[in-house]
């Protein structure tokens, strides 16, 4: 960004949110699970819905690119970073419970919502006890694990549209399906979600969560940075099995490696660049397609810009 324009935009942002919530030229690798990603021109962490609204409307008025970043668990940010304003809602993380209903703000971790459900002896979110994303991200992709999905328990969501208007939608209006919703197509920003759960016994709910946690920790390469499961499950197959049967485990490009522990994961084992990580994803897709005729569709999102040659 040209310095004068950048300075003007900074001043306008300070009229919306506190200075300590605004970061200039912030490395996004500090905010992604893969530990990949170049700089954001502006990285902002608003503390209220009104501040989110103000930032969205400012971006519209100034015609500045705007990107919403969750907690970066299912995301690859390219090495050139992201232009304009990148907003993170991790300070909007309130969770409240009344009877069998839990309302959670977008920036709350879905793991923490599942723990709140356990505390309140509510069943239905056990599957989410190991999902590292936020509530907003969980709705964005209809996150799921071990046979459960967000759409099974979501009743409604409060979202903000591209113009900064806040609207409440029933769950069915989000078109939730396997690892998909209409949130990206509509340009919605999730502000909060309402989950309807069932009464249960604390010991039984905890036993399920403990079992799922043990299964996750024993099978997944959690000791390395990664984006989690890279690919969606192809109809009739398992992505990890196809990759394993293609003899791709341990394959490396630079610092990125197809996990030897779980073939569905690509891990950052030695200061990988996003370019290396993405090249390895494409190599896996190409190899599996050639060997089995199956197209692996990415579950992980890739955003941002490539690094310019002169910046290397």
From TrEMBL:
Q: In which pathway does it act?
A: Cell wall biogenesis; peptidoglycan biosynthesis
**Gene3D superfamilies this protein is in?**
3.30.465.10, UDP-N-acetylenolpyruvoylglucosamine reductase, C-terminal domain, Uridine Diphospho-n-acetylenolpyruvylglucosamine Reductase, domain 2
GO BP annotation list = cell division; cell wall organization; peptidoglycan biosynthetic process; regulation of cell shape
For activity, the cofactor(s) needed are: FAD
Family annotation (Pfam families): FAD_binding_4 (PF01565), MurB_C (PF02873)
The subcellular localization recorded is: Cytoplasm
Record-level GO cellular component terms: cytosol
Known catalytic reactions = UDP-N-acetyl-alpha-D-muramate + NADP(+) = UDP-N-acetyl-3-O-(1-carboxyvinyl)-alpha-D-glucosamine + NADPH + H(+)
Query: What keywords are assigned to this protein?
Result: Cell cycle, Cell division, Cell shape, Cell wall biogenesis/degradation, Cytoplasm, FAD, Flavoprotein, NADP, Oxidoreductase, Peptidoglycan synthesis
User: What Enzyme Commission number(s) does the record list for this chain?
Assistant: 1.3.1.98
Catalytic residues in the record: 179, 229, 299
The record's listing under InterPro entries reads: FAD-bd_PCMH (IPR016166), FAD-bd_PCMH-like_sf (IPR036318), FAD-bd_PCMH_sub1 (IPR016167), FAD-bd_PCMH_sub2 (IPR016169), MurB (IPR003170), MurB_C (IPR011601), MurB_C_sf (IPR036635), Oxid_FAD_bind_N (IPR006094)
> Where is the FAD-binding PCMH-type domain positioned along the sequence?
36-200
The GO molecular function terms of this record are: FAD binding; UDP-N-acetylmuramate dehydrogenase activity
Q: Which family does it belong to?
A: Belongs to the MurB family.
Q: What does this protein do?
A: Cell wall formation.
| Record protein name field | UDP-N-acetylenolpyruvoylglucosamine reductase
- What gene name does this entry carry? murB2
């Amino acid at each position: 960004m040209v310095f004068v324009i950048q300075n003007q935009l900074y001043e306008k942002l300070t009229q919306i949110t506190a200075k300590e919530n605004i970061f200039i030229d912030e490395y996004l690798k500090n905010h992604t699970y893969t530990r990949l990603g170049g700089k954001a021109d502006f990285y902002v962490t608003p503390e209220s819905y009104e501040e989110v609204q103000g930032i969205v409307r400012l971006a519209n008025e100034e015609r500045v690119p705007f990107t919403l970043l969750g907690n970066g668990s299912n995301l690859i940010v390219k090495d050139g970073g992201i232009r304009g304003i990148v907003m993170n809602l991790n300070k909007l993380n309130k969770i409240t419970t009344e009877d069998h209903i839990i309302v959670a703000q977008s920036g709350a971790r879905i793991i923490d919502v599942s723990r709140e459900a356990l505390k309140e002896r509510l069943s239905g979110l056990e599957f989410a006890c190991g999902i590292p994303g936020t509530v907003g991200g969980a709705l964005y992709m209809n996150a799921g694990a071990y046979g459960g999905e967000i759409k099974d328990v979501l009743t409604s969501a409060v979202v903000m549209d591209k113009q900064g208007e806040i609207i409440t939608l029933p769950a069915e209006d989000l078109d939730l399906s396997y690892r998909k919703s209409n949130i990206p197509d509509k340009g919605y920003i999730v502000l909060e979600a309402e989950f309807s759960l069932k009464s249960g016994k604390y010991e039984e709910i905890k036993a399920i969560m403990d079992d799922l946690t043990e299964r996750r920790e024993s099978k997944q390469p959690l000791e390395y940075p990664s984006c989690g499961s890279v690919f969606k499950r192809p109809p009739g197959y398992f992505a990890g099995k196809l990759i394993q049967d293609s003899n791709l485990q341990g394959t490396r490009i630079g610092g990125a490696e197809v996990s030897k522990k779980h073939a569905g994961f690509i891990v950052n084992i030695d200061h990988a660049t996003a370019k290396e990580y993405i090249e390895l994803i494409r190599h896996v897709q190409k190899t599996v397609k050639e060997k089995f005729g199956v197209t692996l569709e990415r579950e992980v999102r890739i955003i941002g810009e490539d690094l310019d040659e002169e910046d290397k």
